[in-house]
Design goal:
Elements: H1 2-12, E1 25-39, E2 45-48, E3 65-75, E4 80-94, E5 98-99, E6 106-109, E7 120-138, E8 140-141, E9 146-168, E10 174-198, E11 202-224, E12 235-260, E13 263-279, E14 286-289, E15 292-295, H2 297-300, E16 313-326
Antiparallel strand pairs: 1-3, 1-16, 2-6, 3-4, 4-7, 5-7, 7-9, 8-9, 9-10, 10-11, 11-12, 12-13, 13-16, 14-15
Length: 328
């Protein structure tokens, strides 16, 4: 699957052999941005009031994040171009400390091995994505000041979503639970760019893009109580499930052309909305230890525990970016 999709992307970049008749003009741009996030919320703790009443605490969402990108390409004498792009984005969150008690009413560990009250909870999460694109496209002049640029190619979609909870139990024990989802597959990417130039050196850019990849996604819980239960002894693994992950992006920017060291250069400031799928915010309801299986809190006490969350949740990142380009 990966090799065939990549071969398709490479083939798309070579559809116009006449484009290589002349020496290409190479260009590059680098980009930095910040983002406000929404989506991908995860319920990590429950409130035990009585044996039959376990309401969930508010789910944790991501805070602000950051992103960066590098694009390197070659423009040929006709409108054809090829481009390699690498983008990274990171989101994090740290929830306020939850103070508990030794008995109900108390916070109960959501992904723990047993229904245990937490004396104190610390929760954090980190989402990291790293995409690689190889595309080919064409510049179509719509007039003296406007250009439409469709492109098509291959994308490697890769992300890691880690949710980590730390609970103080009865002295001297502390429980650590790490719930990690990973995805790494090659699919396709398609998009279109529009540029309108005005006042000689100024321009407005707009771009819409969609990408998709399918493949197995892994999900694993590591459970540890130092001094009591080693991390290597208890872990939960959800069987790999084949999912389709879709990324979407829309952006607009205002830029200016200038000369830097004798070369054409650009600088632009813009706003983008990036939406990425594939997150699994549901719960794994069983913890395995060798050949035996023990119930989690959800399997015994919390109704519909495994149904909380979304098997293919989206996270949205919206914010400003700064782009610097050479030979564009």
């Amino acid at each position: 699957m990966k090799l065939s999709t990549l071969a398709t992307g490479l083939g798309l970049c070579l559809l116009a052999p006449a484009a290589f008749a002349a020496s290409p003009t190479f260009y590059t741009n680098i980009e930095f941005g910040t983002a406000q996030a929404s989506g991908g919320a995860y319920t990590y703790e429950f409130q035990a009031i009585s044996p039959s009443n376990f309401p969930a605490y508010p789910a944790a969402e991501f805070d602000s994040g950051r992103n960066r990108a590098l694009h390197i390409g070659a423009h040929f004498s006709n409108p054809f171009f090829i481009e390699l792009g690498v983008t990274h984005a990171e989101l994090e969150t740290t929830q306020p400390t939850i103070l508990g008690a030794a008995s109900a009413p108390c916070p109960v560990i959501g992904d723990g091995l047993a229904p245990v009250c937490s004396l104190r909870n610390e929760y954090s999460s980190k989402y990291h994505t790293s995409n690689v694109d190889l595309v080919g496209g064409w510049d179509f002049k719509l007039g003296t000041s406007s250009t439409l640029t469709p492109y098509l190619g291959a994308r490697r979609i890769k992300f890691s979503d880690a949710r980590v909870s730390q609970d103080a139990l009865s002295a001297p024990f502390t429980e650590y639970v790490a719930n990690v989802t990973r995805f790494d597959h090659i699919g396709w990417v398609a998009g279109v760019r529009y540029q309108f130039e005005f006042a000689q050196s100024w321009y407005v850019n707009a771009e819409a893009q969609q990408a998709h990849a399918s493949g197995d996604r892994s999900r694993k819980i590591d459970y540890e109580v130092p001094g009591g239960i080693p991390v290597s002894q208890y872990h939960g693994i959800r069987p790999d499930d084949s999912v389709g992950v879709t990324d979407r992006m829309f952006r607009v920017s205002l830029g200016k052309r200038f000369i830097l060291g004798g070369k054409k250069a650009t600088v632009s400031l813009g706003y983008q909305d990036v939406r990425q799928g594939g997150l699994d915010t549901t719960h794994i309801t069983q913890i395995t230890t060798g050949t035996s299986v023990g119930p989690t809190v959800g399997a015994v006490y919390v109704p519909n525990y495994a149904a909380l969350g979304d098997r293919n949740a989206n996270v949205s990142m919206r914010g400003f970016f700064l782009n610097l380009g050479i030979n564009q």
